[in-house]
Fold this sequence. Notes:
Largest sheet: none
Helix content: over 70%
Low-confidence stretches: none
Amino acid sequence: MGRxxxxxxxxxxxxARDVFWREGYEGASMTALQHATGLNASSLYHAxxxxxxxxxxxxxxxxxxxxxxxLAPLRASEVAPEALPxxxxxxxxxxxxxxxxxxxxxxxxxxxxxxxxxxxxGVAEVVRAYRAELHAAFTRGAAALRPxxxxxxxxxxxxxxxxxxxxxxxxxxxxxSAALAALDTALSHLEDGSTP
Length: 196
């Protein structure tokens, strides 16, 4: 029987996640990953199979620890009418304060979608599933916010909000003002009752 791992897997995955989030998959060197996790290359390969296995674990952790907690009010059994505007207000607050630990690095999944790694079928599927998860959550939020609107009107609002969020997540790394403007535009549609 093999010796049990002498490290906390969650801690290792989260440390690697932050390197991938900041540097991207291609930019995250094994040296940087070893330094962040405190493990040598042999231990990382033994635990995760390869750098890609560590990245996949980091993506799953990102979804569970970063994305889904933020979407929880939109996925609850009963969604409050203000849940979708509140989601964007909270995002706006985080984006406005770049002193936060990772906001300036955008979104790990959007960053992956904008890299060469997106050509990998597995990564592309994870990014598509992430967008679908946003869409489903925002659909529930739009139904709670605008219950009397036609489904087609709500769908336009949802698509607008998903697109503006993804735009903001992509732009935060290069144009802070543009990222905030995208979130402000989403909020204007949500708060004034207009349908895009």
